[in-house]
Design brief:
With 723 residues, this protein is α+β, with helices and mostly antiparallel strands. 41% of the residues lie in helices and 16% in strands.
């Protein structure tokens, strides 16, 4: 029908043919009209529709008939090409995806794919089941995305997991199994599908299966389809149990849709909740973050060791050392954090040292010394794995008693001097070594030319033991301190220094590896160290000879600094419980008087007709202004200061969000306190009830009964304290 109209118009007038084609173009979708109109204009020039050459009527009619036929053929070809493009664009829309969440984010396509890139490189940040990930495939295919999706979604990768959960998976094997170039039809639309495949390793391999996560990206449509394939079906998968799609619309809306074929139901409640509650908010956060404005590439993790070997060794060490230590942890710190952190550091060091032995061509295990070893777990693991070493700390820990007696741990105060060089040690470790952190590369440099170091900075300290003060407001203190320590390692001590990020439960995860020495004379290096120490500290002796032998002998004899202040051997309690009692009582009186002044009056159950001064609610900074300066100096030396002191007196004060008020005694308050105590000490209370023990005897005096001008608002039977 359309062909007949085209021919009829062409026979009447070439101009009518052009007008008719343009009218037909208006019936197409808006996104197609620009392309179609451009094709018609090109066609009009090509067929000379507007030819002004004089022709006879019969010749013109025959010519127009041929031109109309050519026009129809060309238009059909253009339409076919356009339809192919439309089909390729709409192919993912025709797949059975159901939207589970959609929100107006206001981000653009560039921000969307930035978030996808962060997620693809660091899946463990949003999925705590994942320990590490390795990219195994990154290709572009000129195929329909629906075809690629069907291949990936129906793929059986169990054959890849027969060899130790796919340790040998690479892009060649994956492409051989996927057969993406054999079973897809190339499209002429020019829209390429980007196919990424990432191998993901679990934290707990006995529960979760290693798997491959596929990302099918169509950049023209801001669309990414994700499919997770576990190696073993009898284990839980690391990713979502169904395929899902993330899409950024041109209208500013971001959405996640899950794949639900019409013939079966594949939705999983926990996977859907994870997509909605975890992945979607994190993607939006990454999209609007300022990472794109950075000039440097963010540091990725585990750059110097194999991620697969690390995951395998970490799980073995965790099973070998972690469980027993967590069950018997005698310290007041969190065992889940400190045990697994040291296990992870040990796994990293063991692989790093294996890499060093391979490069140097030796089988001799490295020796080490850990300065500021703390709980000593890292020393215990490294020693048990065959490396001779020593751990030094200025205080003995309770956990040391759980280690075998042969574990080399020593109580000693380390002051950088001639006695703190270790020429026979291969590696010096500074794991959260605090005041010794900037000294670790100097000690390694003066120990021997072959000595290397591993440094994990935490709290920032200067060379003299004082807190490090940052100089650049545009950087965080931690970032600037890393640069400061790296400058000492590279430009002062002459180490080839690598930065890497560990996989540990801590926000301070960047470590510095002194991997080798730059080739230069020892005198030049020693000159730089002495100049820095002269600028940063007070040297006891600055005169030295110029020969290398004299420098080395003097470095052994001299004390490097006289103003270094190591930490006290006995850890000082700084929670305001060791303050002078008179000082504490005076501060409590000052705060209570401030609250009573112009306080609110309430009625009580004991005397409904009598008003009781419940005090007012004040900001802590206003309360602090009324406390004498001498008292505030003492409080500032404590952790938390005034707020901690008031919280220690929770039977008097209630501190919430930087404001303080009286904790009014009464039935409601007593019930709330009892409920809180029951939540905290539920097991103890249950045991007490089972044994039918008598109620606790009130021994602590009621502060309100003795000090409040209106007394205690409740009777002694209802009060939690003694009247």
């Amino acid at each position: 029908m359309v062909g007949a109209k085209l021919r009829e118009a062409a026979l009447k007038s070439p101009r009518q043919l052009y007008k008719f084609l343009m009218r037909e173009c208006g019936k197409l979708p808006k996104e197609a009209q620009g392309f179609y109109r451009h094709s018609i204009k090109q066609l009009s020039v090509f067929t000379m529709i507007f030819s002004t050459q004089s022709q006879k009527e019969e010749e013109r009619k025959q010519s127009n008939e041929h031109k109309s036929k050519d026009t129809i053929v060309v238009v059909e070809q253009h339409s076919l090409s356009f339809n192919k493009r439309i089909c390729n664009c709409a192919s993912y829309r025709t797949m059975d995806f159901k939207t589970i969440i959609r929100d107006e984010s206001g981000i653009n396509a560039q921000q969307f794919f930035k978030a996808v890139s962060i997620w693809r490189r660091n899946p463990q940040t949003v999925n705590r089941r994942i320990l590490a990930s390795i990219e195994v495939l990154n290709i572009e295919v000129n195929c329909d995305i629906s075809q690629v999706f069907q291949l990936v979604n129906t793929l059986n990768i169990s054959t890849l997991g027969m060899d130790r959960e796919g340790d040998s998976v690479d892009n060649v094997k994956l492409l051989d199994v996927l057969r993406i170039f054999d079973q897809t039809v190339a499209t002429t639309a020019g829209r390429k599908v980007h196919v990424y495949a990432v191998k993901q390793l679990p934290r707990t391999p006995h529960i979760f299966s290693t798997g491959i996560e596929f990302f099918l990206s169509l950049s023209e449509e801001s669309c990414v389809i994700n499919v997770h394939k576990p190696f073993f079906s009898f284990k839980q998968p690391l990713g979502a149990r169904m395929a899902f799609m993330l899409q950024q619309g041109t209208d500013g809306f971001t959405s996640i849709s899950v794949y639900q074929p019409s013939n079966r139901i594949t939705s999983d409640y926990f996977s859907v909740e994870w997509l909605k509650q975890k992945l979607f908010p994190r993607m939006l956060k990454w999209a609007v973050s300022g990472d794109s404005e950075r000039t440097s590439t963010p540091l990725s993790s585990l750059n110097l060791v194999s991620a697969e070997k690390y995951a395998d060794l970490y799980c073995k060490l965790k099973e070998k050392y972690g469980k027993k230590l967590i069950e018997n942890w005698p310290e007041s710190t969190d065992p889940m954090k400190f045990v697994y952190e040291d296990v992870a550091i040990a796994a990293y060091l063991l692989l790093l040292w294996e890499k060093e032995r391979f490069e140097t061509g030796t089988n001799n295990l490295q020796t080490f010394i850990d300065l500021g070893c703390g709980n000593g777990l890292l020393v215990h693991i490294l020693f048990n794995e065959g490396h001779r070493g020593l751990g030094i700390d200025l205080r003995r820990r309770k956990i040391w008693d759980l280690y075998p007696p042969e574990t080399p741990l020593q109580v000693c105060t380390v002051v950088p001097s001639s006695s703190t060089v270790y020429p026979e040690v291969d590696w010096i470790i500074g794991n959260h070594s605090d005041e010794l952190t900037p000294w670790i590369p100097i000690i390694a440099a003066r120990s021997s030319n072959n000595c290397r170091f591993f440094l994990l900075p935490c709290c920032p300290y200067e060379l003299n033991g004082a807190k490090y003060q940052r100089y650049c407001a545009s950087k965080s203190q931690y970032s600037e301190y890393i640069d400061y320590v790296k400058n000492i390692c590279v430009h002062i001590c002459g180490f080839t220094t690598h930065l890497d990020k560990l996989r540990i439960p801590s926000t301070k995860r960047i470590c510095l590896i002194g991997w080798g020495r730059t080739r230069e004379e020892m005198k030049k290096r020693e000159d730089r160290i002495r100049q820095m120490l002269s600028a940063k500290t007070t040297l006891t002796r600055q005169k030295y000879e110029s020969s290398d032998e004299t420098i080395e002998s003097e470095a052994v004899e001299e004390e490097w600094t006289c103003d270094f202040k190591p930490r006290d051997k006995v850890e000082r309690v700084r929670n305001c419980t060791q303050l002078d009692r008179t000082l504490v009582a005076n501060i409590v009186d000052i705060v209570s008087n401030q609250l009573l002044h112009e306080g609110r009056a309430i009625t009580t159950e004991q005397a409904p007709k009598k008003l009781w001064n419940a005090g007012r609610c004040l900001e802590l900074r206003k309360v602090a202004e009324s406390i004498p300066r001498e008292a505030m100096i003492h409080l500032r030396k404590e952790c938390g200061g005034l707020q901690t002191l008031l919280k220690n007196h929770s039977h008097i004060f209630r501190v919430v969000e930087g404001r303080v008020e009286f904790r009014v005694p009464g039935a409601a308050a007593a019930a709330a306190a009892a409920a809180a105590a029951e939540r905290i000490n539920g097991k103890a209370k249950k045991k007490r009830n089972e044994l039918s023990l008598p109620p606790r005897v009130k021994t602590k005096p009621c502060w309100f009964y003795k000090n409040h001008p209106d007394g205690c608002p409740v009777t002694e039977t209802k009060c939690n304290y003694k009247h």
